[in-house]
Design brief:
single chain, alpha/beta, Aspartate Aminotransferase, domain 1, Aspartate Aminotransferase, domain 2, 2 domains, seven-stranded mixed sheet, 40% helix, 14% strand, globular
Length: 494
């Protein structure tokens, strides 16, 4: 067995980082200067990315917005990637980039690792992508996950993290006989109707869930991150409206720790869920197998009832989702009787293309390779090096930006966009909060464009994932490129 160490050497001081983000939010917005941004657009995007620009122009005729995935939306236009290898991406125009997007997190080993790719090719040559029947890798993957994550006694593969989060809610209601779901404000648990609530900015309720009828949220509510008092208040209130079936947590904080939470909060939230008879559901779509082979739950020493997986569960291949947990909870995805002989109600759960031979084989070999190479720790060290370098650059150029990381999940915040919150006791403030977040979101996009023009792909210009494919020399080169952008930043004047 390989080393089961964690990506996080020392956990951040959530209170101190929150204070920095509070200060950033109150300051004028700093961003890449207009003349520098224009230079990047004219000299890079319009000059060196012409094939991407033309392809997106054509794509907009048949694809809404021109791309099929939200991560691909970039200012001034999406870049068309044709090759991914290790720590680098290559576009249709022949340009290359350091990959700090990592497909939203799952490619911990780096893009297209040969150790996984060769096994997938062999499977395609012998079995093909799908049969609709059982394949041995379904068992191998489930067994591997169960061995690595102590709370996962049983595992069910699904097609995405969204599906897994939906399924977990159904299990929770059947297991507890209760109605309500509580989730952390600002956290993202996929885009299903009931869980698309309080997204990005705590307190938004259903404001950002366009197309979802308000009545769908009758039994969904949010609590403020890092606030055990608010969580318990909601748990108490729910006792009079059907009880709380589940408490959902992103264990590092909303949006992969963009608003970080303390260890004490996570452990306290687990205790409160137990106290009020709710299932504790850890959403480890990003943290699962990135923070450590036993997930963030292993790092925090918490035993959730259910765990939502996604992304990395298929090693970056399609079919990336699943739910695992204690046997008595997972029994609701099968048919049978409990220990007293009572029939166990079965949760509605489908997915014709879930657990294909390709996704299960890719996931199995990815986890084996992560374990063999100690990839979590390697990627975490690269995240530490990147963050230290960014903090030095911020000081050098006297910017109000905030850089912090939780292992290989790094954050570079120039605007505090997602640190706002909505107080419904002050409804007159809501329009201004939404306006401010819109302005700041736009400046995040401008920063992301500047980074891309310098050869760095990020998630929304603010989130950065390192992989085990990085070397110290690569990280130092990345920092030089970031430095060229930060040297061209100042107060927003547009």
């Amino acid at each position: 067995m390989g080393n089961r160490g964690f990506a996080i050497e020392q956990y951040l001081d959530a209170e101190a980082v929150t204070k920095q983000l509070d200060e950033l939010m109150r300051k004028p917005v700093y961003s890449v200067r207009p003349e520098a941004l224009k230079g990047y657009v004219d000299n890079y995007f319009n000059t060196k990315c012409r094939k991407s620009k033309e392809m997106i122009r054509q794509a907009k005729k048949v694809i809404p917005g021109g791309v099929q995935h939200n991560l691909a939306f970039n200012y001034p236009f999406p870049i068309v990637i044709t090759k991914a290898e290790g720590a680098k991406l290559y576009d249709i125009d022949g340009n290359w980039y350091y990959d700090l997007l990592q497909a939203g997190g799952p490619t911990l080993l780096g893009s297209n690792p040969p150790a996984v790719r060769e096994q997938v090719i062999e499977l395609l040559n012998t079995c093909g992508p799908s049969t609709g029947l059982f394949h041995e890798f379904e068992y191998k993957l489930a067994r591997k996950i169960s061995e690595l994550v102590p709370s996962v006694e049983m595992f069910r593969m699904l097609g995405s993290g969204t599906e897994a989060a939906m399924c977990a809610a159904r299990i929770a209601r059947l297991k507890t006989g209760k109605k309500n779901i509580l989730k952390m404000g600002g956290a993202y648990h996929g885009w299903s109707d009931q869980l698309a609530y309080g997204m990005r900015v705590p307190g938004t309720k259903g404001l950002l869930s366009k197309g979802v009828p308000g009545f769908v949220f009758k039994h969904t509510d949010e609590f403020f991150p890092n606030d055990l008092t608010d969580l318990e208040r909601k748990l108490k209130a729910n006792r009079f409206t059907g009880g709380t079936a589940a408490v959902y947590l992103e264990p590092l904080g909303p949006e992969s720790g963009t608003r970080p939470v303390s260890k004490e909060f996570i452990r306290g939230a687990a205790a409160l869920a137990r106290k009020y008879g709710a299932l504790l559901i850890f959403d480890e779509v990003v943290t699962g197998f990135r923070i450590g082979l036993s997930g963030a739950q292993g790092y925090f020493g918490v035993d959730p009832d259910l765990t939502v997986f996604g992304k990395i569960i298929a090693g970056g291949y399609p079919g990336a989702g699943g739910v695992g947990g204690h046997k008595d909870c997972m029994a609701h995805l099968g048919a049978g009787l409990d220990s007293s002989g009572k029939k166990i109600p079965k949760a509605m759960c489908g997915g014709t293309m879930a657990a294909t031979p390709v996704s299960c084989a890719a996931g199995y070999y990815t986890l084996c390779e992560i374990e063999r190479t100690n990839a979590c720790e390697t990627a975490g060290r690269m995240g530490d090096r990147l963050t230290r370098g960014l903090q030095e650059l911020i000081q050098k150029y006297r910017l109000p930006f905030v850089a912090f990381n939780q292992g290989s999940i790094c954050h570079l915040d120039n605007a505090g966009t997602m640190h706002f919150c909505i107080d419904w006791k002050k409804p007159w403030e809501i329009p201004d909060v939404l306006k401010q977040t819109g302005i700041r979101q736009k400046e995040m996009e401008h920063m992301g464009a500047a980074y891309m023009a310098e050869g760095i792909v990020t998630l929304a210009g603010s989130r950065l994932y390192t992989s085990a494919a990085y070397t110290e020399e690569m990280i130092d080169d990345v920092l030089e490129r970031f430095g060229r952008v930060l040297a061209n930043c100042g107060p927003l004047v547009r």
